[in-house]
Amino acid sequence: MAMELSSLRRCHHHLALLLLFLLAGSSIALPVQPEMERVRWQVDRVNRRGPSIGLVMSYIDEATALQSSGYFRPWHALPFVDLYGRRFHIGSIRGVNVIYALTGQRRLNAAVTVQTLIDVFSVSGIVHYGTAGSSNDSMSFGDVSVPKFVAYTGAWTWKKFKSFKESDSELSFGEFNVPNGGENLLGALKFRNEELYSVGKPMKEVFWLSVDSTWFKIAQELKVTLERCNNTFCLPTTPKVVYGLKGSSADMFLDNAEYRKFLFREFGVSTVDEESAAVVMTTTSPGIPVIVFRGVSDLAGGEPTWSSTSLMKLASINALKVAVEFIGTVGKQKSTTLAESASN
């Protein structure tokens, strides 16, 4: 009987130790809750300022252009909020509330950042600026494209060799055989539509995504003088802002002359990048205004070796200048509308 009691005591002792370890382990996770409470408090404080325009860019060079420009004025009370590994900078441009964030490259990063902006913060619209490769010979280095439509051209169905051609928007590898076109065992690629889910509407398949029509009209009225020179050289002509072209995005850095020519020939796209379509699609679903400004930093394949590196900064600055002018104009129009409403 004494041995049974001793064994029972040892069992209770082991259970107590196990419970102690479990409690110690659970206490490690407890600090996460106060951290989230602090972030919620920060977000609430930011949102009490009123709606902001979300400003997003993809590359560090594009964010550096904003940081060194002096356009952005951080909010002294709370200059940034760190959320889900990203830093959302709080401040203003031309007197307009702005929250800007570096998304990182390619579609997933861009979509996650924009979705966080519109879900967590009070955002009245999204402005996206950055650099792009040109697929249109009429676009020059340093020019800024304000596309009306963008498409994601990285979704394909790989067709079988010698399969029937269903549409003109297919890429047949055989056409690129050298020295003469012909058949190729790689077959062909059929470009796929995207599934667009929108508030109050059934899901539909789309290829072209449109920027906000009202914001596009505002952008068309902008008067912006773009930069022609950087620290090392000057372009032969002053860059220009071009409106109403088409842009394409895919999860790849395009550096192939034949493929960029194909995109221009088949779809009429003038710029190629990795994020614009994701930004536009993410904002289109909830019906939030969006616009895109892309500065041409390189020819997407077949360009001189110096262009893509030396023009990145200049293209970023020019795209930023147009975006800043747009933000200031939207802010003035909103203030005028509010003043007129108050007087009536």
Protein described:
The structure is a single chain. With 344 residues, the chain is α/β, with parallel strands linked by helices. The chain has a domain at 34-151 and 206-250 and 271-339: Nucleoside phosphorylase domain (Rossmann fold). The chain is built from nine helices and 18 strands. The protein has helices spanning 2-29, 32-47, 60-69, 106-120, 213-220, 257-267, 276-284, 307-310, 312-343, and strands at residues 52-57, 72-74, 80-83, 86-93, 96-102, 123-134, 144-146, 149-152, 156-159, 170-172, 188-191, 194-196, 204-206, 208-210, 241-243, 246-249, 269-273, 290-299. The strands form three sheets. Strands 1, 2, 3, 4, 5, 6, 7, 8, 14, 15, 16, 17 and 18 form a 13-stranded mixed sheet that branches. β4 and β5 form a beta hairpin. α3 (60-69) packs across α9 and α4 runs parallel beside α7 (276-284). Residues 1-5, 15-31 and 338-344 have low confidence and may be disordered.
Descriptive tags:
single chain; 344 residues; alpha/beta; 13-stranded mixed sheet; three-stranded antiparallel sheet; catalytic activity; signal; Nucleoside_phosphorylase_sf
Mean of residue pLDDT? 84
Largest sheet: 13 strands, mixed
How much strand content do the residues show? 25-35%
Number of beta strands: 18
CATH architecture of the domain at 34-151 and 206-250 and 271-339: 3-Layer(aba) Sandwich
Q: What is the CATH superfamily classification of the domain at 34-151 and 206-250 and 271-339? A: Nucleoside phosphorylase domain
- What structural category do the secondary elements indicate? alpha/beta
The CATH top-level class label of the domain at 34-151 and 206-250 and 271-339: Alpha Beta
Tally of helical runs: 9
Based on CA inertia axes, which overall geometry fits?
A: globular
Unreliably modeled segments = 1-5, 15-31, 338-344
Percent of residues in helices comes to: 25-40%
How far from one another are the termini? 93 Å
Secondary-structure element pattern, one letter each: HHEHEEEEHEEEEEEEEEHEEHEHEHH
CATH topology of the domain at 34-151 and 206-250 and 271-339: Rossmann fold
What radius of gyration results from the CA coordinates?
26 Å
| Chain oligomer state | single chain
